[in-house]
Specification:
With about 425 residues, the protein is α/β, with parallel strands linked by helices. It has two domains: about 190 residues, Glycogen Phosphorylase B (Rossmann fold); about 210 residues, no CATH class. It contains 14 helices and twelve strands. The strands form two sheets. A seven-stranded parallel β-sheet has the order 3-2-1-4-5-6-7, sandwiched between helices. Strands 8-9-11-10-12 form a five-stranded mixed β-sheet, with helices on both faces. The longest helix is centred in the N-terminal third of the chain and has 19 residues.
């Protein structure tokens, strides 16, 4: 999606007007239902694109009020006009009560507006209620982010059953990834009703940041040739997913052992944190050759010669044994970087600043036993050590300087790892 060339779906697919029932109207009415912060963030580019085709579509936006304080700042940020606010949320309300209130209030709106299509997103109670209300009135329903599955009805709950039920109610399915599309096909959904759209959250980021993302870091330092092809096709300038260390398999084993995941979820994450041979990868920036183009790789720095991690999460984990030794370890790594001509590029993760006193839900991550105040002290002292020996830049600036220099070129086909978990969400 792009403001310069507005299109709701890929140009090689049918126009959305073919998804609307032929009622003889010159302008078709699309009623979009949302009620939570994620829904409005992901639907905002779709709503904007529909508005750009105002000679073909009339847009009617309905907020259920499932979220209140969290929702409306983003409604204002994306300048979304709300025609109807159902105000359905009440304190202590169960999902059944919320669903019933939304359906009852929405039924009146549908009777009044008579839309040609109802658009819902994701797997919330709002989305399920919107799809069911439309189905009862024989109004076609289009589902954004269709085909997402965990394989476990209890996780996430109740979202997994919501998304499956919406699939049964919807007439048109907008899949974010080819994997989601294949899931729908395997469930017997007609190919003609499935549209591969890519992820609208990328367009939302462009609106919020004022530019499209140009850099990427894969989950768990995972990377594949498929990832690089998508990044190049999307115009990304650099990747920062590689972690040249021999300890990746140990990190993956610890994560899979301590995280509360289903067996299917564990299988999907088998490529996280890389493989033993990743320790042979270079520490300095280089270029991946991807077909006829290149993309800069900025490795996450590990200790030169020894290839052991030095990023802040690792330092915090070491501080469980001794803070002073953890900082001495980091200072030694910085001196080796200077000696070997490596400009350190380090990952600062949100969990490096959150402690057990902030949240218990993420206690399985290493270092979460450390209080946030101590984490802030460790990170601050480490940054001071780094600033004493190097000029600290944002990663985009660092990548820009690397891109302007002569770099070694590496063929992407030499990257022999499994597919990145949910990498196609970038499309």
């Amino acid at each position: 999606m792009s403001a310069n060339s507005p299109t709701l779906i890929r140009s090689d697919l049918p126009d959305l007007s073919s998804c609307l029932r032929p009622v003889g109207k010159p302008v078709r009415k699309v009623l979009t239902v949302f009620g939570t912060r994620p829904e409005v963030i992901k639907l905002s580019p779709v709503i904007q694109q529909l508005a750009a085709f105002n000679q073909s579509f009339q847009t009617v936006n309905v907020s259920t009020g499932q979220h209140t304080d969290l929702l409306y700042p983003f409604v204002q940020l994306f300048d979304i006009p709300v025609a109807h606010d159902l105000g359905a949320m009440e304190p202590g309300q169960t999902p059944n009560q919320l669903c019933a209130r939304v359906m009852s209030a929405l039924d009146y709106v549908l009777s009044e507006e008579q839309p040609d299509l109802i658009l819902v997103q994701g797997d919330t109670t709002t989305a399920l209620a919107g799809a069911l209300a439309g189905f009862h009135r024989r109004i076609p329903v289009a589902h954004v982010e269709a085909g997402l599955r965990s394989g476990n009805l209890s996780s996430p709950y109740p979202e997994e059953i919501n998304r499956r039920l919406i699939t049964g109610l919807a007439s048109y399915h907008f899949a974010v990834t080819t994997r989601n599309r294949d899931t729908l096909l395997a469930e017997g959904i007609a190919r003609s009703s499935i549209f591969f759209t890519g992820n609208p959250v990328v367009d939302s980021l462009k609106t919020i940041l004022g530019q499209r993302p140009i850099g990427f870091r894969g989950p768990g330092y995972s990377l594949s040739p498929a990832t690089l092809r998508v990044l190049v096709r999307r115009g990304y300038q650099y990747d920062a997913s590689t972690l040249p260390t021999f300890l990746g398999p140990l990190a993956r084993a610890y994560y899979l052992m301590t995280a509360k995941l289903t067996e299917e979820e564990k299988q999907k994450r088998q490529v996280l944190f890389g493989k033993l041979r990743d320790g042979l990868q270079p520490l300095k920036p280089y270029r991946w050759q991807v077909e006829d183009r290149t993309i800069v790789e900025i490795p996450v720095t590990t200790m030169p010669l020894f290839k052991v991690p030095i990023h802040f999460s690792y330092l915090i984990y070491l501080s469980l044994y001794s803070t002073s030794l953890a900082l001495q370890y980091f200072n030694t790594a910085l001196k080796l970087c200077r000696l070997r001509g490596v400009q350190p590029s380090l990952l600062l993760h949100p969990l490096d600043l959150l402690g057990s006193d902030d949240t218990q839900d993420l206690s399985f991550f290493p270092g979460m036993k450390v209080a946030s105040e101590k984490k802030l002290e460790i990170v601050s002292r480490a940054l001071h050590l780094m600033s004493d020996q190097f000029t600290i830049l944002a990663l985009q600036q660092h990548a820009g300087k690397a891109n302007a220099s002569e770099l070694t070129i590496v063929e992407s086909k030499t990257l022999r790892v499994g597919e990145t978990y949910n990498v196609e969400a970038l499309r």
